[in-house]
Amino acid sequence: MLQEQGVPLDLKAATLFGCVLAQQCRTDELLKLIAHMQENGIEPDALFLRDILARLYRHYDVDKCLDFCKHVLSVARCQ
Q1: Most buried residue among 12, 14, 61, 64 by CB atoms closer than 10 A?
Q2: Distance between CA atoms of 37 and 21, rounded to whole angstroms?
Q3: Whole-number Å distance between alpha carbons of 75 and 79
Q4: Which InterPro entries does the annotation name (predicted)?
Q5: pLDDT confidence tier of residue 38, bands split at 50, 70 and 90
């Protein structure tokens, strides 16, 4: 998606796209974004996760948000 838009991937761009995906509750695409970040050597930081979780929280309960965090960590560990 980022390449289609012609946007260079950095943490700021990934955070903005991640917030849009979280607002639309598209968690599968969020995980793909995080995997793509890892491939490019971009580590999701605490602010990235905070912004994403703040938007997911509107759709999910706390347990679902924690599950998402676990998925993020598992994607990061696999890279």
Answers
A1: 14
A2: 15
A3: 7
A4: PPR_rpt
A5: confident
| Segment (H or E) for 68 | helix 62-78
Model-wide pTM > 0.85: no
- CA angle 69/78/40 to nearest 5° reads 90
What confidence score (pLDDT) does residue 13 get?
87
Is the Cα dihedral 46, 49, 55, 56 positive or negative? negative
User: In the numeric block, which tokens belong to residue 28?
Assistant: 């599968």
Distance in angstroms (rounded) separating the CA atoms of residues 1 and 69? 22
- Residue 68 to residue 76: CA distance in whole angstroms: 12
